[in-house]
UniProtKB/TrEMBL annotation:
It comes from Centaurea solstitialis (yellow star-thistle). InterPro entries: PAP-like, PAP2/HPO, PAP2/HPO_sf. This is Phosphatidic acid phosphatase type 2/haloperoxidase domain-containing protein. PANTHER family: LIPID PHOSPHATE PHOSPHATASE (PTHR10165), LIPID PHOSPHATE PHOSPHATASE 2-LIKE (PTHR10165:SF193). One of its GO terms (biological process) is phospholipid metabolic process. GO terms for molecular function: phosphatidate phosphatase activity. Keywords: Membrane, Transmembrane, Transmembrane helix. Its main location: membrane. The keyword Membrane applies.
């Protein structure tokens, strides 16, 4: 009898609790003698097979209705912040030396960013759904990804509007013709210099006089405090004041960083079995995001500090959003959602 009681106590101490979600309720099943971790995972996977979009899609959507409403609010905030006029930081003539990099086209256009930072990760999530038929995993992955991208967008645009740092190619945005001065030495009619200087106290007269004399198209390009007065396209100049932080980089790391965390949990990269191929899979999205950031510096649209700050924002937000819905990748339950 004593031996039987001792055996029961040993069995009860080795119980493994497995939680599952069904009909919006949580219940617990106990498997007393499971030593094989793969068998445990297989049992849990069997319970998740029934959680398809058809059977549980409406349930999980209703459960997280508030989260989807918050996402809509974040979309509105991002749209408003993207329309706000950024702060026009002081740009003196001596600063223009560092802002004369050529005005180039984007290597990675803005419309491409949602394709690889949002749609591609969603495609990966869908592939795992077809393999495991777990609508909760699919829903939480998509929801977490959208939260990561939109929160990053709010933070990025808010900082852009508040800082107003000029881009490296700001000079050519401000002065498309490359002229920021109208020196007296270029006057065609030297005998009218005194007449020109007499009229220079009025900006309108100054422009008119310079037009008649043929010296240049514009005259005064810096105000009394030395701040620049641009004559380029207003939208191009406005875009030139939104350098810090890099939006391409922050969005890339928020979307692809979330995908990297998702893959690290699914392939069990931290299982301590030394499979380097798993690390390659996890680091590949981060490599793509890094190359996008490098392209922003190569195109002279951003300073390196802008790209570095954007990467930090994207990685930080994606990590927090991932941990809201999934266990840490190094955790034993890292392949499952909360």
């Amino acid at each position: 009898m004593a031996a039987s009681l001792r055996a029961l106590q040993d069995a009860s101490s080795r119980k493994i609790e497995i939680s599952a979600v069904a009909n919006n309720r949580s219940y617990h099943l106990y498997y007393p003698l499971i030593d094989d971790k793969k068998a445990e995972i297989r049992m849990r996977d069997e319970r998740l097979v029934a959680h398809s979009v058809r059977s549980h899609g409406i349930v999980v959507a209703r459960t997280h209705m508030n989260d989807w409403l918050i996402l809509i609010l974040l979309v509105v905030i991002v749209m408003v912040l993207s329309r706000i006029h950024p702060f026009y930081r002081y740009v003196g003539k001596d600063m223009m030396t560092d802002l004369k990099y050529p005005l180039k086209e984007n290597t990675v256009p803005l419309w491409v960013v949602p394709l690889y930072a949002v749609l591609f990760p969603m495609g990966v999530f869908m592939s795992f759904y077809f393999y495991r038929r777990d609508v909760y995993d699919l829903h939480h992955a998509i929801l977490g990804l959208l939260f990561s991208v939109l929160i990053t967008g709010v933070i990025t645009y808010a900082i852009k509007d508040a800082v107003g740092r000029p881009r490296p190619d700001f000079f050519w945005r401000c002065f498309p013709d490359g002229k920021d001065v109208c020196p007296i030495t270029v006057f065609r009619y030297s005998n009218m210099i005194r007449f020109y200087m007499f009229l220079s106290f009025l900006s309108l007269c100054q422009r008119f006089a310079c037009f008649l004399l043929g010296c240049c198209h514009f005259l005064q390009f810096y105000d009394q405090f030395g701040d620049v007065i641009c004559h380029g396209d207003s939208n191009v100049v406005r875009e030139g004041h939104m350098s810090f932080p890099s939006g391409h980089t922050s969005w890339s790391f928020s979307g692809l960083g979330f995908l990297s965390l998702y893959l690290s949990g699914k392939v069990r990269v931290f299982d301590r079995k030394g499979h380097v191929a798993k690390l390659c899979i996890v680091f590949l999205p981060l490599l793509v995001a890094s190359l996008v950031g490098i392209s922003r510096v190569d195109d002279y649209w951003h300073h390196w500090q802008d790209v570095f700050a954007g990467a930090i924002i994207g990685i930080t937000v994606s990590t927090f959003c991932y941990l809201q819905f999934f266990a840490p990748p190094y955790h034993a339950e890292g392949i499952f959602q909360h």
